[in-house]
Design a protein that fits this description.
This protein has 202 residues and is mainly α. It contains 8 helices and no strands.
Length: 202
């Protein structure tokens, strides 16, 4: 059995998402003869669901970027940009440089609380598109939250445990468990193939 590369698995899953316009289920992928078995994703991703989440984020980001470019082109058509002057303004020496942008403390807490509530309710992190719809999160805010490590799953596992008392699976532990399962399945498959090769033809 030929194993597909991570890039091939990614492209197959991306095509399926584009076809459906949503995240495919385990059964939908398994029943698609053009796609690899869902369990094969565990070799390159933590699990099939993690693979779907990662490819869905890439799909959502690309879709958002296309829509943003389309809106920009539309604005350029309606409101043509004036020609830029040849000379540019140079700041005077001794001027105070602009401080690095960041959201207000209230806004940071609002975004943090949204991610925490979402994680407690769904046991997973929201995508950027979901955050954009729910709390009007911008890409600038996304970059800031990421730079402050406020989009780390381990952080929300710790915070959610404090609130709910529930035990959540640590991402690294989950990854190790899936790797062990994937390795065992691969060994069993190899043993089965060897047995079939050594079986005499009657």
């Amino acid at each position: 059995m030929i194993k597909r590369t991570k890039e091939e698995l990614h492209e197959d899953l991306l095509k399926k998402i584009e076809e459906l316009g949503r995240k495919p289920t385990f059964q939908e992928v398994r029943q698609d003869p053009a796609m690899a078995d869902p369990n094969e994703y565990a070799y390159h991703y933590r699990s099939f669901s993690d693979a779907v989440d990662q490819v869905w984020q890439a799909y959502s980001f690309r879709k958002t970027e296309k829509e943003a470019r389309a809106r920009t082109e539309e604005r350029r058509t309606v409101y043509p940009q004036a020609k830029k002057p040849v000379a540019t303004m140079v700041p005077l020496k001794g001027t105070v440089p602009k401080t690095k942008w960041q959201p207000s403390p209230e806004r940071i807490e609002e975004l943090r609380q949204f991610y925490l509530d979402y994680f407690i309710e769904n046991d997973t992190m929201p995508t950027f598109v979901e955050a954009e719809k729910a709390v009007k999160m911008t890409r600038r805010e996304l970059s800031f939250m990421r730079s402050k490590f406020l989009l780390e799953k381990t952080y929300y596992i710790r915070e959610a445990t404090k609130i709910t008392g529930k035990e959540y699976i640590d991402p690294w532990l989950e990854h190790n468990q899936n790797s062990i399962i994937a390795n065992r399945m691969r060994r069993e498959q190899e043993m089965l193939e060897k047995q079939l090769e050594n079986t005499p033809i009657e």
